[in-house]
Amino acid sequence: MALLVGAGMVAAFHIGKVPPALPSIRRDLGASLSEAGWLLSVVNLITALGGMAIALTADRIGQRRLAILGTALCTLTSLLGACVGTVSALVAVRALEGIGFISVVVALPPLILRIVRANEQRAAMTLWSCYMPAGAGAMMLIAALLSWATSWRTIWLVAAAASAAMLVALLLGARRRRELDPAPTQHLPVLIEMRDVASSGGPMKVGRMNRPHRGTHHSTWPGTACT
C-alpha cells in the first residue's frame, strides 16, 4: 500500500512543480500572465474533460496497467517539457502530462482497496487522501529551493527522475497479481457508458448532497481528510 500511495504523491509532483517555476518560465520563454495561467490550469481542464473516459478505460485495461502507463507518461512528458523552446509547446506537453496524472490517481484507489482488509479500508482511503497535499507540497518546496540556483528546466528533470524511479518501483513491486487485474467482463463502448453515467442523475444527486443548506455559511468539501 505504501508503494501505491507513494505513486500518487509522485504524480502530484507534476502539479506542485509549476507555481514556484513560473518566474523562471516567464523569463526564459517570455510567457505572458495568460499563458502562465494556462500552464497552471491545463491539467485541471484535462481532468474535467477526460476524467470519466480515463476511469472507464481503467475498467477495461486494468488499474495496475493504467497506473504504470500513467507514471511512464508523466516521466516522458516531464523530460520532453524540459527541452521545449516555446510556451505553446510547454502547454501542449502539460496537457499530455495531465493525462498521465489523472491516469495514475484514478487507477490507484481501487488497487488500494483490493489489497487491504475490509476493516482497514477507511484508514487506507484516509491515508490516500493525503497524496495531493503531501506530494504537491513537497515538490513546491523542492522547486522553490531549486529555483534559487537553477532554471525551471532542472525542476522538470527532477520531477521526471522521481517518476522514473517510481515507474521502476511499480514494475518491480506491482507484479502480476490476480487481485490487481480486472475480472474479464463485457463492457459497452466508452462513449455510451459516459452518456449513461451523465444521464443517470447520480452526479446531480452528489452535487445536491454537497450543497450547503440555505442559511448556513459553510461548505462541505469531500476528500479533505488531511487539512
What does this structure look like?
The radius of gyration is 19 Å and the shape is globular. Helix 4 packs antiparallel against helix 5. It is mostly helical and 227 residues long. The chain has one domain: Growth Hormone, Chain: A (Up-down Bundle), CATH 1.20.1250. The longest helix is centred in the N-terminal third of the chain and has 29 residues, at 33-61. The chain is 74% helix and 0% strand. Residues 216-225 have low confidence and may be disordered. It has helices at 2-16, 18-29, 33-61, 63-81, 87-115, 121-128, 131-147, 152-173, 190-198, 202-209.
Q: What would you say the CATH architecture is?
A: Up-down Bundle
Mean pLDDT: 82
Strand count: 0
Reported for the largest beta sheet, the result is:
none
CATH superfamily: MFS general substrate transporter like domains
Structural category: mainly alpha
Helical stretch count? Answer: 10
